[in-house]
Structures are given as C-alpha cells and as structure tokens.
Amino acid sequence: MIQEIYTHLKNKNLNPYFPGQHEGLCDKPYCVVKEGTQIPSIQSNRLGQKVIDIIVFVPLSSYIALEPYMKQIRAALKEVLDLRKTGFETPAITDDDKKAYTSSIEYVIIKKLEG
User: Fold this and answer.
1) Cα(49)–Cα(110) distance, rounded to whole angstroms?
2) How many angstroms separate the CA atoms of 114 and 101, rounded?
C-alpha cells in the first residue's frame, strides 16, 4: 500500500520521497511517505490498522505555502481506496537541517495481519 500511496502522489506531481531519500536542503515543497505503527483490531487478531505518516516540507522562505501544499496532498489521498485520514496533524515546526518548515498528516489503512 505504501508504494501505491507514493505512486499516486508522484502521479499528482506532489514530489514524494521515502524516508532517507531526499538529499540536501529543502528548495521546493516535498513530502515523505513513511509507515508507522501497526495496531491490531480489538475484535480480531487477523485484521488491524497500519499508520501512514505523510511528512510535509516547504522551504523556510515559504511558510504560507505549507497549508496549500498540505491541502493538495489531502485532496490527492482522498482518491486512494482503503486509506483513511485520522484527523491528527502536527503543527508547523522548523527543521534546521533541511532549512524547512515541516508538518505531518496521519492516515491509517485497514490491513490483514501477517504471521
């Protein structure tokens, strides 16, 4: 599913990366698609949820570009089946290493537990 999310964002020209792929300073908006915690369902040990974090970066000179870029990401991900927005979003903070403002949007997918 993470590959599907990445490909969908790429097709929408939203400049996605996987963790550790982006190099250098933030010179244009980009996002990182990252898998998070897996949570088992209370009703079943066969189904659960997988957290997907979309970490958003915009250059320090472009604070006002953060919300419109996040809005584009939210709109694009509404089109991905089985992906549900949790409503949890972090406030904008500065990333001194990347010279960027960053925020994140949390999603979950329902998935079959393996093993």
Assistant:
1) 5
2) 37
Report yes or no: 56 and 31 within 8 Å, Cβ to Cβ.
yes
Question: What CATH number is attached to the domain comprising 85?
Answer: 3.30.2000.10
Q: How many domains does the chain have?
A: 1
pLDDT of 111 reads 73
pTM beyond 0.90, yes or no? no
The 3-state secondary structure of the chain reads CHHHHHHHHHHCCCCEECCCCCCCCCCCCEEEEEEEEEEECCCCCCEEEEEEEEEEEEEHHHHHHHHHHHHHHHHHHCCCCCEEEEEEECCCEEECCCCEEEEEEEEEEEEECCC
Q: pLDDT tens digits, residue range 22-36?
A: 999 999 999 999 998
86-106 pLDDT, tens digit each: 999 999 999 999 999 999 999
- 18 lies in which domain range? 2-112
